[in-house]
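Give me C-alpha cells for this 423-residue protein.
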Amino acid sequence: MSISVEITGISAVTPIGVGIAEFTDGLKNGHANYTSVNLELENQQFRFPIAQNPDLDIKKCFQQHPSNDELFKKAIRLRNLSKGLQMGIYTALDAWCNARLNDTQVDLSRVAIVACGSNFQAGNQFETMEKYRLKLQSLSASYGINFLDTDIVGTISELIGIKGEGYTLGAASASGNMGLVQGSRLIRTGEYDVVIVVAPMMALSIYEFVGFTEMGAMAKLKDNGDPEHLCRPFDKEHAGFVFGENAACVILESSEHVQKRNAESLAEIRGYGVVLDANRNPNPDLNGEAAAMGKALKMAEISGNEIDYVNSHGSSSPLGDQTEAEALLLAGCHSALVNSTKSLIGHGITSAGLVEVVASVIQMKEGFVHESRNLESAVKNNINWAKTLNDQRQLSWCISNSYGFGGINTSIVLKNKINESRN
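Here you go.
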C-alpha cells in the first residue's frame, strides 16, 4: 500500500493576521497592510514599500497563545532570537498544537524538520555588523550560532524534543514549495511519520532592498507614492513585487500515522513537480512553468481541467505574471479560479510558497477564494480571475505555484480532505 502525505496542521504569521483564525478573516475580507520603510546607509536615504503587521508583538503572541501549552512557555524563555526566527518558531509550535500532536504520544525519532529558505537572516546580520563593527570585543558569543539559518532547526528540535533529521533547504522564492516536496519524500520513504515544514520570515537588509529594486524585480515607490496600490499581480499596471513579512508552518503526516491517532486531515499532497530552466538569470520560462504543473498533475493523476483553484505565484512582475498566465493555459487550467495571495500579504520570498499553501488549505477548508487585490485590467482575459471574493465554493483540487530565481519552477497539487470526509 502506497503512503499518502496528509496535511494535519497549519499556521502563519502574516501582515493581515497571526494564526489561522486571523489569517482566515484577513483573506475573506481582502485585508492588506501596505506601508513603507525608510532606510539609511552612510547618509544615503532610501524608501521602500513593504507589507507588514504594524501591531505585531511576537513575544506577546507566545504569551497569549490560547493553548497555554508548556511549549510556548519554554519558547518565551529563549534568548537571542531574531524577529524572523521568532515568527517561524511561533508558527511551528502553533501548527504542532493545531495538529493535536502536543497531546499525543509521538515517537520523536520519527519526526523530521525541514526549514525553508537560505540567507533569511541577512537583515539581522547587517544590523549586528553595523552595531559592533567598531566594538567587536562586545559581540555576544551567541552570534556564532544565531547567524546560522540552522538555528531555527536546533531551536524547534529542542523545544519539542525531536530526534529525527533536520536541515534547511534553499530554492529562492520556491523554497516553501521545495520544503513541502522534500517533506513529502521523507514521509513516502516510510522512515518518518511526521515532518515539520517551517519557513521563518526572511529579513532583508538595505542591500537586498536595493539589489532587488535595481534589477527591476521589486516595485519602486515614487515620491509621495501610495504603497496600497503598488502590488498588482496580473494587472496591466503591475511594476514589480512588494516585500511582505511572512512566516508559516505546515505539518505533514503519513496517512497511516493520521489514522492511527484518529486525527483529521485537512488536505493531501497528491502531486508535485520541480523543473529547472537551465538558466542562472531571474527571467521566467513558459515551458518550465508549464512542465512543473504538468508533472504535478501527472503525479496526482488528474488533468488541468479538474483543478478548481490556482494559488498563483503572481508576484506582480510584468514578465513573470504574463508568463505564468500563459503557462496556466498551456497546463490546461482553463476553468479554475485564479488569485494571488501576494496581492494581500506581499512577497515573503523564501517563505512565500509555504504561506500560500497555508492560504490554499484555508480556502479549501472554508469554501471560498479570496480576491486578487488591485486586479482591475488583467493581462489576459481568458482566465477565470478572482477579482472579488468568491464564497460558497466547493474546492476539491488546488494547484499552488512558486518560482524562484535561477530557473526553479515548482507546483504542488492539493486534494481537499475536509469536503471528502463530509461527503
